Amino acid sequence: MSQDLFEELHELLIPKISKCTTNWRTPISTRERLVICLRYLATGDSHQTIAFSFRVGRLTVGGIVKEVCTEIWNTLQPEYMPSPTEETWKQSEKGYRETWNFPNCVGSIDGKHVSIKCPKNSGSEYFCYKKFFSVVLLAIVDPCYKITVIDVGSYGRHSDSDIFENSIFYRQYIHGKSLLPDKPLPGTEEPVPHVLIGDEGFALKTYLMRPFPRALATQDERKTNFNKRLCRTRRVVENTFGILAQKWRIFLRPIDCDVDTAIDIIKAACCLHNYLRTKQGTAILTPESEDENVPMRALITHRPTNRRSTTAAFETREQFVSYFNQ
């Protein structure tokens, strides 16, 4: 974050994080409160380390982080992560079609485990299959690596499909509705639904495409070509999580605070990610410039699911298979 962007963010937050001066003491300035919060997000240091660096109390650091993260979300979310509209989906579809050669795609979706300290009296609710405690960050990403929608705070033991189908986004935009009206793929005449693309952690739906199982794809070149095209495009969301974790290194270690504060921290980091992507205009990695062998270990993906799919979902995927093998 450049100094100019920091000053702009500070101006937006001054009315929300300022404290009154009393006869008892002078409050910590708004600038220092914001610096403490950003330092915590960017380094992942403990509250005690931050407290030593700024000569304030450890509990004071914890209170500042929670309050400032909440206000970052409340201030930046309406502008940098607003509720998606029809125009939002149209612009996203255009970007995926022109940049990633995947028409009728409006977003790339994935869920990641964010490691947290074991919550008190939580039993195994937050214990995920990777043998650590976590909350799930589910995100839909546009072709420019900006986050369109997030769902944060689900139990680590739940699957991607369960979390997605119980999210507010699903009830508001998917259930009984369509993101955009169906339209034919380029060079074809039959209308095809607009879709999200995900990995094996999601069930195949008419509105969500996933790759073929590897055992089937190795026996059919058409399915292999489809998997290559889908997985190349789906790397947009993987790259976004990688950028998020490298800028905000709080994701590289377990978040040592209660669950509600951890959720506030994750939401604030996602808003700051969009804020910086919008202001800095960072270049987009093209399919040709990507390294397929770079792992991303900060956030852990979900395990695959084998839920049954409808005949309509298989037919929709077959339409994409035919298009990519013309």
From TrEMBL:
<dbReference type="Pfam" id="PF13359">
    <property type="entry name" value="DDE_Tnp_4"/>
</dbReference>
<protein>
    <recommendedName>
        <fullName>DDE Tnp4 domain-containing protein</fullName>
    </recommendedName>
</protein>
<dbReference type="GO" id="GO:0004518">
    <property type="term" value="F:nuclease activity"/>
</dbReference>
<keyword id="KW-0378">Hydrolase</keyword>
<dbReference type="GO" id="GO:0005634">
    <property type="term" value="C:nucleus"/>
</dbReference>
<keyword id="KW-0540">Nuclease</keyword>
<feature type="domain" description="DDE Tnp4">
    <location>
        <begin position="109"/>
        <end position="274"/>
    </location>
</feature>
<dbReference type="InterPro" id="IPR027806">
    <property type="entry name" value="HARBI1_dom"/>
</dbReference>
<keyword id="KW-0479">Metal-binding</keyword>
<keyword id="KW-0539">Nucleus</keyword>
<dbReference type="InterPro" id="IPR045249">
    <property type="entry name" value="HARBI1-like"/>
</dbReference>
<dbReference type="GO" id="GO:0046872">
    <property type="term" value="F:metal ion binding"/>
</dbReference>
<comment type="similarity">
    <text>Belongs to the HARBI1 family.</text>
</comment>
<dbReference type="GO" id="GO:0016787">
    <property type="term" value="F:hydrolase activity"/>
</dbReference>
